[in-house]
# Entry
Amino acid sequence: MTPPAPSSASRHGTSGARARRRNREVEPVVYDFRRPIQLSREHSRILQLGFDSFARQATGVFTSWLRTVCSVQLLSINQVSYDDYIDSLHAPTYLMKLSAEPMTGLAMMEVPLAATMSCIDHMLGGPGSDKQPIRPLTEIEGNVLSGLIERLLSEMRYGLAAIADFELAPQGIEYSPQFAQIAGAADVMVVVNFDLRIGDGAHHLSLCLPFNGLLPHLAKAAAPAPVSDRELAKRERAAEVLRRQFAQVPVEVNVRLRATRLHPDALGALRIGDVVRLAHPASAPLDVCVDDTTFAHATAGAKGPRLAALIVGAPKETR
# Structure
């Protein structure tokens, strides 16, 4: 039995859904020509691998410490000015200044106070409800949270080990973004954004790193690793084997005359017995081609009962 053809309404609905998905996936990104992008694609890839690893480890840390289902996912890695990053934060919030030797400058990790209080509530045996007090932490609350923060910093150090062996250490807590001055307003920063989910609650977590302090370590991590003499010898042997094998691969070779141009009317009027004047001079050699690439010239001839071509030279650009 032949299945019924989809109706016009269903086809339009499917195409409309696809269009809506494309519109959601592709969104315009603001580009500031006064601050050209300096973070290369290769550097972004290195950071993405490191922070993806950190997000996976942080998911386990939050779940085990809070004893509830948690998840951490990497959202984006952006290059912005420090002033723009501070303006994007809500006040008050939990800001931890960090040193990251051997990287110069200070970094900063931001966790919304709602997420911070929810973590403390869970660790003290509470339900971690959405309604949490938005205020600075007390000394006891700070001590309760410090163990979780230290574990997260340890996992972050592990995730970024491919870039450098960073020694992440807390350097102070701030609750007002305007008072957390770790860089100049126009300094370029690398901002890493995460999606933090604690139970049913969704929160935003971010990390701010100084671009000038991070760049030398990214460049070093992206540099090709030194190759030993043994590895060089293996590569040379592999290249020689590859050259020998390619020399034995058969290819299709064409011997061609030069192209002749005809008007479409003249081409359509051709009949059996018509003679076409070729644009190839009688004294000019033929072109020997492989895949439309001319690599030699030849003259027409014969070898026994078969036609043949005698190679007489190579094009100037291939000599």
